[in-house]
Amino acid sequence: MEAMELWQIALIVAAGVGAGGINAVVGSGTLITFPVLVAFGVPPVVATMSNAVGLVPGNIASSFGYREELRGQWKRFAGFIPASLAGSLIGAYLLLHLPEDAFETIVPILLVLALLMVVGQPSLSRYLKRRALRRHEGGHDDGVSAEEGGGLSAGKTVLAFVIIFLTAIYGGYFAAAQGIILVALLGLVLSDDLQRLNGLKNVLVLVVNTVSATTYIIVGHDRINWTAVVCVAVGSLIGGYLGARIGRKFSPGLLRAVIVVLGLVAIVRILTL
């Protein structure tokens, strides 16, 4: 790829800010940075690898920003780490070893699914809030003490483990909207409110992105666009911090509209390669 111009670098940094902020609040920030990188001529697989490495600082910032929501969840989180580790390694392996034309065939499908998750997120949030309220009113609240004591049944624990493992495979391979997928599926198993689920999601996504990014650097460092990595990293670090602090004040409808438009641009761009 040719050297980027200053305006392209500025736009990638701005995209990184948006992605870091959206990842902290909702998830799906990849649907901002990935289309921008592809639009500037970065090959899709290279864009995915570079994006994964660059978003890690933002994941760290957003996880730190949600430390209050993580209080009381660390024992449960520790039990889920193996699922995230194993799944992300498998996803990274698939990305590195499957033919690039397979990626270009699969990713538009994954993008469509991710965009559907983004569009359906408000309805999902309302459902999860109603569900949590019913459980609380019915005296079935799995509060902090239950979580620390391993209050989940064996069946729910296994189901949550499988959900995290499969989502981590997806995240290691492509990553777009893995946070939304995690919140959606874990919300059906765990009774936490959305903010606590979001905190758990941020840390699990951090694990997945860190493992996959490390794998890309070790095995495929020559296929990473380091200019893009630095731009996305700087932007996502700022965005992750801001998103965790003030991101809840942003208009969710506007964020979803931006994500959907950029996602559609990425699909068209990949299909016309």
Query: Could you state the order of secondary-structure elements as H and E?
Result: HHHHHHHHHHHH
Let me know the average pLDDT.
Answer: 79
Main beta sheet: strand number and arrangement? none
Note the total helix count. 12
- Return the structural class: mainly alpha
Gyration radius, in Å: 18 Å
Distance between the termini: 15 Å
- Overall structural domain count: 1
- How many E strands? 0
Q: Given the C-alpha coordinates, what overall shape results?
A: globular
Measured as a percent range, the helix fraction is over 70%
Low-confidence stretches: 141-150
Could you tell me the strand content as a percent range?
under 5%
Membrane topology: Multi-pass membrane protein
Subcellular location: Cell membrane
GO cellular component, one term: plasma membrane
Organism: Brevibacterium casei
List the helices and strands and how they pair.
Layout: H1 6-25, H2 30-39, H3 44-65, H4 67-70, H5 74-97, H6 100-137, H7 144-148, H8 154-173, H9 178-186, H10 194-220, H11 226-246, H12 252-271
Task: Write up what this structure looks like.
With 273 residues, this protein is mainly α. The chain has one domain (20-133, 153-269). 81% of the residues lie in helices and 0% in strands. It is built from 12 helices and no strands. The chain has helices at residues 6-25, 30-39, 44-65, 67-70, 74-97, 100-137, 144-148, 154-173, 178-186, 194-220, 226-246, 252-271. Helix 2 runs parallel beside helix 12 (252-271).
